[in-house]
Q: What sequence folds into this?
């Protein structure tokens, strides 16, 4: 992680049909940009589950500064 100490950008990424399993615990998904020039933008989570619970509405997603257009959707019906 950041071996060269220069952050990159995260843009137009989609996580779809992802399931996190394991021991019970305070699992969190974090989306945080380093600064205004190195932001995380247009990240989409579709049908992501953590320990059997949907990410949508779970409170497990932490969005930090320098982020935008972060979308969390439940499974399509």
A:
């Amino acid at each position: 992680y950041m071996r060269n100490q220069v952050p990159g950008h995260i843009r137009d990424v989609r996580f779809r049909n992802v399931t996190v399993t394991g021991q019970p615990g305070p699992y969190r998904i974090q989306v945080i940009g380093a600064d205004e020039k190195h932001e995380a933008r247009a990240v989409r989570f579709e049908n992501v589950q953590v320990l059997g619970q949907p990410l949508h509405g779970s409170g497990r997603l932490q969005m930090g500064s320098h982020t935008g257009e972060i979308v969390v959707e439940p499974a399509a019906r």
Summary: The chain is about 0% helix and 50% strand. Residues 50 and 56 are 10 Å apart (CA to CA).
